[in-house]
Amino acid sequence: MKKILIGILFASALAASLPVPDYFSADFTQVVRNKETDKQLYYSGKMWMKMPDEAKWEYYIPLKKTLCLSGSRAWVIEPELEQATLFRLKKSIPLFAILEHAEKIGKNLYKAEFEGVEYRLKLDTDGKISTISYLDEMGNRVTLRFQNVATEPFDPSRLTCEVPDDFDIIDGRY
Q1: Which range of residues forms the domain containing residue 140?
Q2: How many domains are contained in the chain?
Q3: Which of 48, 103, 146, 164 falls 20 to 30 Å from 76 in CA-CA distance?
Q4: Could you tell me where the DSSP H helices lie in 23-174?
Q5: Mean pLDDT of 50-70
Q6: Which residues, at least 6 apart from 135, have a Cβ–Cβ distance to it below 8 Å?
Q7: Residue 173 domain-assigned?
Q8: Does 169 reside within a domain?
Q9: CB of 29 within 8 A of CB of 130?
Q10: pLDDT tens digits, one per residue of 92-133
C-alpha cells in the first residue's frame, strides 16, 4: 500500500503549479530509510504518468511488480506471487494544493506542509522534479529520485496494465 501512496504522491505532485508537463516518464529509485534501525530498502524501475491521474510504475528491483493508477483505482500486479490486487484509493495526498502554496527555500528547492507532514521537492536545472522526500506515517524517510526524465507525449498503451488469466485476483476495495 505504501507504493500506492507514493504513486499518488508523485501523480499529485506533477499536477501542481510548479512547472509540470502533461506527460512524465522517468527511471526512478526509491529509498526508504527505517527510522529505528537506519536500514534502507531500495527499489528501482521505470514510470510513466499522464496528467492528471493516470500512472504506471514498473518495479524491477528488488522484485518485479507493476503498479497501475487510474482515478481512484489501483492495481498491484505481482508476477512472482502470480496475483493481482485491486485497491480503491480512499485518500490521496492532495499535493496539488500543497504545491500551489509551496515555498521556495533555495535554488530549485521547495518545501510544502500538509497535515503535519513536510515534503521537500528538488527540481533539476531544467525545472523538472528530480527528487521528492518526506517522512511516511511510520516516521521512515522516503526519497524518490528520477533520472532520464522525459516530458514528451508517449504511446498511451504504456499505461495499460493487463492481469494474466491464470493470476489470482484479490479485491482489496472493501
Answers
A1: 2-157
A2: 1
A3: 146
A4: 95-100
A5: 90
A6: 35, 117, 118, 141, 142
A7: no
A8: no
A9: no
A10: 444 444 556 678 899 999 888 877 778 898 999 888 889 989
| pLDDT band for position 91 (cuts 50, 70, 90) | low
As given in the structure block, the three cell numbers for residue 10 are 508523485
Sign of the dihedral through C-alpha 90, 40, 135, 21: negative
Q: Return phi, psi of residue 109, to 5°.
A: -125, 130
| CA-atom Rg of the chain in angstroms | 16
CATH of the domain at 39: 2.50.20.10
In a domain, 110, yes or no: yes
Q: How far does Cα 142 stand from its chain's mean position?
A: 11
In a domain, 86, yes or no: yes
Q: Which residue type is seen at 49? A: M
